[in-house]
């Protein structure tokens, strides 16, 4: 019946395909791991910086010339704050596009690092007598498969973030720390309980919780 | 009558199974693991690799074969009705065909084409007008040709549509291949009218399709379309399988399946060329492709037993593979379309709701997070790899078919690689929906 093609041609095609699939599998996992490794590097760098903060803090307590030291510390914190903000955007991007889901390690490290950074800034306000307004922003971290609810939450996040960005542009004194509304992470659960935050997105400014955007929009930062 | 009803039921069930598969995949599968996507990609990619290997290993399979020592008699057959005068142009071309012995051009008509009465070399086969009466459930062309064949004595039939013009040596080049178990031979069809973008797309599509893809199918004895616009067949062999199916809208596909089932084959000859007129409006293009898809599914349903019938060579594999590939393709296209439209609608809805609830002005909100790419960014790499392979296969197919890539075809080629498949699969999905709900066929 079959006049022309040998079965070997079919098998050769299959072999080539298997090689391509295996190569593609390893290429994708390597690329995804490479992307994750980059974020892990960022977090490691940030932690290293924070170790330095501890040294600075100890040094401030033991020195009389706290004014110049505080200036250095403030600069240091500001740089870390910027790194962490960029990290949030990267983390969201990787969550959105990643084939291999982001490991909890990176997420937890980001959250813990950000909480630690917030605590440093609080301490800086007290130790160096600064009047920075520290804002905690709890965004929704929708991990469900329900696309519509994810879009709803993304839109809400987007509106809150735009409003907060406008606020930070308007008020030099404001530092915003973005955290997911995730009660599974113990420290976050503690903060959520302490501030009695009932839903998300929510913004905590000077111990007061805001759910209404118009109040945040009109916030007087003087 | 009973068997016709059973057949209709078989088709309905076939359509329904595909329809339900598409619905489940589109609306109920929320997340697909990337490894599964990779495997599906591999499955779809397999035939492209196989085609490349075959086209490299057997590049001359579809070249014209030496003309037989004993010259077979041939009848050149076309049809016309309702006083269709443009048929004269086709007839004039058909009369100029090269062939070692004299032949007649037979025109099957309804008796209204009086202008053909005194044309030398032309014989009219006049059938009752009822044969030409339009009926959405009957394939008029099949009915007319089947009846016309009864009036022809020649061994071979060279069948040409009224809007198709073959090259002078086309018949000569096809004849050598029509031997042994080959019942039908088709040539390479190009496009006569390639002025608009839609026509250029079809020009590129035809010149690709009538190149290596048909060589590959010939090589694995699975050429499943005996292109009715322009083909040469052995009358005895065609009549032995009962001629064309008058209830199928793609009679050229149906007859190919019927021939393959009975142990015959259909072959392709690349250097026997003709040009035809293609649809020049989106509406006509849509109707034509709908007909092709619905007819194709009807044929697959009718011959579904060939999935497992023994002694069919590679045809079982080809049939199962292409049917599955088409269904998977439709599932992904349906899901992607649903995801894109759903995402846009949901984003706009929540955007407007939030706008009303919070009074945030439009400029403050970014819709940049809308993902238009439901397949993940890393899989884009696979998409690019397959596009490169497709482009390569296309380019070698063009050169095999002697098609020169001019500047005016660059955009249609890009469209063909990145968009056309998606559009065709959408049309295919619509044809499934039409099939499920029993929408009448359109010609």
Structure description:
The complex is a heterodimer of chains A (222) and B (443). Chain A has 222 residues and is α+β, with helices and mostly antiparallel strands. Chain A has helices at 7-62, 66-97, 104-127, 147-170, 186-194, 213-217, and strands at 133-139, 174-180, 202-205, 208-210. A four-stranded mixed sheet of chain A has the order 2-1-3-4, with helices on both faces. In chain A, helix 4 (147-170) links the parallel strand 1 and strand 2 (174-180). In chain A, helix 1 packs antiparallel against helix 2 (66-97) and helix 2 packs antiparallel against helix 3. The longest helix of chain A is centred in the first third of the chain and has 56 residues, at 7-62. The radius of gyration of chain A is 24 Å and the shape is elongated. Chain B is of the alpha/beta class. Helix content of chain B is 51%, strand content 12%. Chain B is built from 13 helices and eight strands. Chain B has helices at 2-28, 34-57, 87-95, 140-149, 170-175, 197-209, 212-219, 235-240, 251-261, 282-302, 315-358, 380-400, 410-436; strands spanning 74-79, 104-109, 122-126, 156-160, 164-166, 182-191, 230-234, 265-276. An eight-stranded mixed sheet of chain B has the order 3-2-1-4-7-6-8-5. In chain B, helix 3 links the parallel strand 1 and strand 2 (104-109). Chain B starts with a helix and ends in a 7-residue tail after the last helix. The model of chain B is unreliable at 361-377 (pLDDT under 50). Classes of the chains: A alpha+beta (222), B alpha/beta (443). At the A-B interface, helix 1 and helix 4 of A face helix 2, helix 11 and helix 12 of B.
